Amino acid sequence: MAETVHGPLPFQEAIDFFRAKVRLPTRTWTDLWEGMHSRAFVVAGAVKAELLADFQEAVGRAIAEGRTLNDFRKDFDAIVARHGWSYNGGRGWRSAVIYNTNLRMAHSAGRWAQIQRVKARRPFIRYSAVLDSRTRPEHRAWHGTVLPADHPFWQSHMPPNGWNCRCTVQSYSQRDLDRLGMKQSPPPATPEETVAVNTPQGRVAVRVPKGIDPGFAYNPGEAAFGRGADLAAMRRHGPFTPLQAPGGDRPASPPDLRAVRTTTRLGPPARTENDLRQALRDAIGGDERIFTDPTGARVSIGQGLVDHYLDGGGRRDGREAFFPLLPELIERPQEIWVGFARDEATGKVVLRRRYVTIFDLGRDRVVGLVADLDGHRFAGVTFFRGGPTGAGRLRSGLRVHERDAGED
Fold first, then answer.
1. Phi-psi region of 145 (alpha: psi -120 to 50; beta: other; left: phi over 0)
2. pLDDT tens-digit profile of 64-78?
3. Would you list the DSSP string of 47-100?
4. Residue 354 forms beta bridges with which residues?
5. For 300-310, what is each residue's pLDDT tens digit?
């Protein structure tokens, strides 16, 4: 087990990357996969909100202050004792995994942000391995590879490329390469292999580039920030591709939800765009309002919901009549689910929350809201309503909240 003896020097981009993460409870390390980790802070087996918060604070302090593994282990011991947490593996191994993986991913993402900022002047990236007895053969072969910053190689091979990988990258200008006697490399071959990983659903086969550990074949910075200038051209609402962890395509088959009564009255149909916008104002008390859900997450609802509705290009379907249910849907949902999607134009991964409630409105109607992480809060982007069977497409991913049956 390689351990970081001296804490790495802190830098702002790495700090910002880590602070933007949202805490998610998980049972195993395969609950999230690759780029999902750029949007969420998880510790496998840590499901209590207070436990996760303490771990995130301790890791964040290590990143911001350049604290060592020994420093972190003191925090680790105190957190474990305070919460009575039982975990798999020995204390030395588990604390090192949490510390090293989070710090190396944060520094990789921060380095990517720096590279994107200066790539007009320094458009080349060089792969650098440590070259000692512990270096993986493939990583040794990649050492010295020089490719443009926008080359697809960096989408999957940006270090770290496995558990305890110590590889790094540097950026260079053409003048730097000329001065150092270096030149752009031919792209390395990137053959894939099939590897089996253990998941709660059993062993699942995944395809990964040879030499990269399962779960590491992604660029943490690209997943968090996107590909530099391309972000300016990104459409806010897509095109997005849903992401799944290994075994995640197998349905969880949650039990059917029982419709709940509400005293909220539905609104009138809207005939014009102004009517639509006024319907939302009447429902939330203005053009924008921030709600807090049962997990403590802040959700901003504003005219972007109407914009998305109008951008659809199809006929208006009367969903504005259900706008008055938005406060209840966010503050007292039957369920909250979390999922991830990747913007195909930029590679950026978004974290999405889906709020679901089936209301008894004379006939049962499912009402749902999709909200994307936007800075340190979520912003509502899509609002649904339909028959009870429509709840199925909303109820996937990780369920992070379930209303107590006694609250119905």
1. beta
2. 999 999 999 999 999
3. --HHHHHHHHHHHHHHHHHT--HHHHHHHHHHHHHHHT---SS-HHHHHHHHHH
4. 337, 370
5. 999 988 888 88
